[in-house]
Design brief:
The protein has about 230 residues and is α/β, with parallel strands linked by helices. Helix content is about 25%, strand content about 30%. The chain has five helices and eight strands; from the N terminus they run ααβαβββββββαα. The chain has helices spanning about 1-15, 30-45, 70-85, 185-195, 225-230; strands at about 55-60, 85-90, 95-115, 120, 125-130, 130-150, 160-175, 180-185. α2 (about 30-45) runs parallel beside α3 (about 70-85). The longest helix has 16 residues, at about 30-45.
Length: about 230
């Protein structure tokens, strides 16, 4: 009887199937690609000395700048000018100096290398499969930026200007199909960003939404006499 019961349960389990599925989606550009590019841009701008712009009214001429993530690049330049004590203006007429940034190349590239045996096709339609013992997949981002600053009135160049080049990378290692083990500038950048400075509190947004009325207003509106009669 026990055997019949066990056999019946096994038969029931074998005939019963279950499945679950979930749908995921990705943005057209991966987050890793965007992070690599912004990392390279930040490294490029780290090599630019914005200190001479202290106390100056600065106009940024954008017409020579054409690259991917132009918004992030321009926003980062604006931020660094303001941090250096410069004032941004909307037109060259009201500026003391004009800055012209340009791009010599902002983008990504990939490299795939492995130790093992490539796929080999033999006579007689026989094919030996590819064997990868150790594999490294790397994605690079490059940022080459040129900058020049000149006097808005005299058009005289202020300093030599120059070109700043930087590279960021993300390496993924696989050994006998296991991995990835990661390293590179992107992983280091994320690791630093995840650390909370000593003594700094986390500024979290409230989990409930609340507003306050402007000064001088109670925030309470009473119905008019006409509205009451309606």
């Amino acid at each position: 009887m026990f055997r019949l019961t066990v056999c019946g349960l096994l038969l029931l389990l074998s005939s019963t199937t279950g499945c679950t599925s979930s749908t995921t989606s990705n943005t057209a550009r991966t987050a890793k690609e965007q992070m690599l590019i912004s990392n390279a841009i930040d490294q490029s701008l780290d090599k630019v000395d914005f200190a001479p712009l202290y106390g100056q009214k600065v106009f940024i001429e954008e017409k020579y700048l054409d690259c991917v993530d132009k918004g992030y690049l321009l926003g980062s330049i604006r931020h660094r000018i303001m941090r250096a004590g410069g004032t941004l203006v909307a037109a060259a007429d009201g500026a003391d100096v004009v800055m012209e940034p340009r791009s010599g190349g902002v983008g990504t590239d990939t490299n795939d290398a492995f130790i093992g045996m490539p796929e080999i096709t033999l006579p007689g339609m026989l094919t030996l499969p590819e064997i990868r013992l150790t594999e490294r997949k790397t994605q690079y981002a490059y940022s080459k930026l040129g900058m020049v600053v000149y006097d808005a009135k005299t058009k005289e160049v202020l300093g030599d200007g120059g070109v700043s080049l930087a590279q960021s990378d993300d390496n993924n290692w696989f050994v006998f199909g296991m991995g990835p083990w990661q390293n590179g500038t992107l992983k280091s950048d994320v690791a630093v960003a995840r650390r909370l400075p000593h003594g700094m509190k986390i500024n979290r947004m409230p989990t409930q939404v609340a507003f306050a009325a402007p000064a001088g207003h109670s925030g309470i509106r009473y119905a008019s006499e006409a509205e009451v009669k309606q």
